[in-house]
Specification:
The complex is a heterodimer of chains A (221) and B (397). Helix content of chain A is 35%, strand content 25%. Chain A has 7 helices and 10 strands. In chain A, strands 6-7-8-3-9-10 form a 6-stranded mixed beta sheet, with helices on both faces. In chain A, strands 2-1-4-5 form a 4-stranded antiparallel beta sheet, with helices on one face. The longest helix of chain A has 16 residues. In chain B, 48% of the residues lie in helices and 19% in strands. In chain B, strands 1, 2, 3, 4, 5, 6, 7, 10, 11 and 12 form a 10-stranded mixed beta sheet that branches. The chains are: A alpha/beta (221), B alpha+beta (397). At the A-B interface, α2 and α3 of A face α1, α7, α8 and α10 of B. The complex binds adenosine-5'-triphosphate and magnesium ion.
């Protein structure tokens, strides 16, 4: 379960240009839910997602993802949390250029798993299989189309078999047809038991989710 | 984490090769510079202790004061009670079988601390032959032949007074451009470097042996140059008086205080360093700037990858550390390149001043440390200024 209570986030805290990006936000998302977060530009959607993903800090409130209380965790624990408990998918895919699909997907395993190389490969192949790219593992990522790149990014997000997947505008850079296919992938993952949170502008994508949370001006509506 | 350093490096192999070459060049300059400094100041080492404290270097013209003559020395010490010790070098001028007239010098252990450059063989204390006196010689021919004296030759001599036969075993030959301590030399404004003569085409035939071996030659006597050390309680006025008396009563041809010689020697060392330092400093500065630019470009161009690593489960500290590991690896490659370059230059010339002693290794380590520290600092600053979030955000919009 994801449980956010009285969350406040300021950018440039205590400076003249301070922005109160999230205002006393409370939100609960049950395990196994497929949730869309929608709202106008600048509403605070990405901020909320980045906090959930353990890549941004906040000033007050509690954030609990599964059994992890993010507000009490140090940098090492947060790094492990990003590595094991969750998977992150971004609009621009976030792949390391110049190396193969295999290397990109293996990255989270390289960073923390004491398993053998053979076992890692097996995991990578399983993840690539899930996104439908298992026959392209050796290819360099620069040769791929946008949709394929996003599949690689999703494979990387799920390679450690996390319980939670957080995606920020995963279809934003794709044409609508490809976007639909990627959305289908998220639905499949959700069916396999993963809790998925997707930030999106796209009504159609949002409509394909179980639940829609609207953020307006830093508050949940 | 090692893997991350490796991954980064092999993604941009050429960029990193360039950085390695830059750090390697920096090390090369440092090592060469230090070796040059060591080489230049090495000739001062034998005189460091000898010129320490209060004393005079005096030049005596021939027979007036011969310190190796015991009654003369005793008389001298009686007249100048503040003298605590006298050091001098024994010398002789003799006719060796098959050679022109040669000059012998007997070096003590202190003088031997500076080893001149030998074109062949070894220093006289490093090689021995049964029943022979070991000696090093300047290049000289056998009379009436075009053969030169070589390391390994044995030259015979029959003592004029005792008739004893002495065999001199040549252990080495001084090379062109080598400097050897020439205790008969008298020069104005003497400093430690001027106590040496240079081996060139015109060099007189010289045979150098140890101060114990030269006693075998019954004619050997003190050279004209002597280091007179005083007791610590001697006053400036007394020293001045002694100087005047040496010149008038003892017919000394020159008297110089140790303090003056020390000052002049240090001036020369500074001058020598000063002549190479600006050039070295400028080239070092250029390379340093290049390395810093490379480090900055490197940090910035990789910041996106850093964000991905962060997102996938690395802490900022570990990302910085992986960068540092990489820098150390790169400068290690640079060090290897430096050794390679030195080895290559050696095959072209034997006079490259490049030697890896303790201080030089420390200098190389300092280069590694400076480079790694710079990259680490830059990386850390860049990562702090642009948190992973803002990078992800920038990449995202
Ligand atoms: N690094 C930052 N420094 C200062 N203010 C920021 C920063 N990032 C976001 N903000 C501000 O915080 C607020 C929320 O931004 P956020 O990116 O979360 O919105 P969003 O809902 O994701 O918008 P969009 O749909 O355009 O992506 C905005 O007012 C934005 O200007
Ligand atoms: Mg956003």
């Amino acid at each position: 379960m994801i449980s956010i209570k009285n969350l406040n986030k300021y950018y440039d805290y205590k400076r003249v240009n301070q922005t109160h990006a999230l205002k006393d936000v409370s939100l609960t998302i049950e395990d196994g839910e497929l949730t869309a977060i929608v709202g106008n530009s600048g509403a605070g959607k990405s901020t909320l997602l980045h906090i959930l993903a353990g890549i941004d800090d906040f000033q007050s409130g509690t954030v609990k993802v599964g059994d992890k209380e993010l507000d009490t965790m140090g940098p090492m624990a947060l790094a492990r949390y990003r590595n094991r408990t969750i998977g992150i998918v971004l609009q621009d895919f976030g792949l390391i250029e110049g190396v193969s699909i295999m290397e990109n997907v293996m990255l989270p395993l390289r960073l923390g798993s004491p398993m053998s190389h053979g076992k890692k490969k097996e995991r990578v192949m399983k993840a690539l299989d899930t996104v439908g790219l298992s026959d392209m593992a050796k290819k360099g990522v620069h040769k791929l189309s946008g949709g394929q790149r996003q599949r690689v990014a999703i494979a990387r997000a799920i390679v450690n078999d996390p319980d939670y997947i957080f995606a920020d505008e995963p279809t934003g850079a794709l044409d609508s047809e490809t976007g639909k296919q990627i959305m289908g992938l998220f639905r499949d993952l959700n069916k396999k038991g993963k809790t998925v949170v997707i930030v999106t502008h796209d009504q159609e994508i949002a409509g394909a989710c179980d639940r829609i949370v609207t953020v307006k001006d830093g508050r949940i509506k | 984490m090692l893997y991350i350093s490796y991954l980064r490096t092999f993604k941009n192999i050429f960029k990193y090769l360039l950085i390695s070459v830059l750090t390697g060049t920096m090390m090369f300059i440092c090592v060469t510079l230090y070796t040059t400094y060591e080489f230049q100041s090495a000739r001062y080492t034998p005189f460091k202790e000898r010129l320490d404290g209060k004393g005079h270097l005096i030049y005596t013209a021939g027979n007036y004061i011969c310190f190796s003559n015991t009654p003369i020395q005793n008389e001298f010490r009686r007249k100048y009670p503040k003298v605590s010790s006298i050091s001098y070098t024994l010398t002789d001028s003799i006719q060796l079988t098959g050679l022109n007239n040669v000059t012998l010098y007997g070096y003590d252990d202190e003088i031997c601390r500076y080893r001149p450059y030998l074109s062949e063989g070894r220093w006289f204390d490093e090689d021995h032959k049964e029943g022979c006196i070991s000696a090093v010689v300047t290049p000289m021919p056998y009379v009436g032949t075009d053969r030169k004296v070589k390391a390994g030759d044995v030259i015979e001599y029959e003592d004029r007074v005792t008739g004893e036969e002495i065999d001199i075993y040549v252990t080495g030959v001084l090379g062109q451009g080598a400097s050897y301590y020439a205790p008969n030399k008298m020069t104005r404004d003497i400093n430690a470097f001027k106590m040496y003569s240079l081996v060139d085409q015109m060099t007189d035939p010289i045979v150098i042996m140890s101060d114990t071996d030269i006693f075998r030659f019954s004619d050997a006597r003190a050279s004209y140059q002597a280091f007179i050390r005083y007791q610590d309680d001697i006053t400036e006025e007394e020293m001045e008086q002694y100087r005047d008396r040496f010149l008038s009563e003892e017919m000394a041809t020159g008297v110089e205080s140790f303090a003056d010689i020390r000052t002049r020697t240090k001036d020369v060392i500074l001058l020598k360093i000063g002549s190479v330092l600006p050039l070295a400093a400028v080239s070092m500065a250029f390379i340093l700037i290049a390395v810093i630019c490379a480090a900055i470009l490197n940090s910035i161009s990789e910041i996106r990858d850093d964000a991905i690593l962060y997102m996938s489960g690395m802490t900022t500290a570990k990302i910085t550390l992986s960068m540092t590991v990489q820098s150390i690896g790169l400068s290690a490659i640079g060090f290897t390149l430096t050794l390679g370059l030195a080895a290559y230059v050696r095959t072209k010339t034997d006079r490259l001043l490049f030697e890896l002693g303790g201080p030089q290794i420390l200098l190389c380590l300092a280069v590694v440390a400076v480079f790694s520290l710079i990259t680490m600092l830059i990386k850390y600053t860049v990562l702090r200024k642009n948190s992973a979030v803002s990078i992800i955000r920038k990449a995202d919009t």
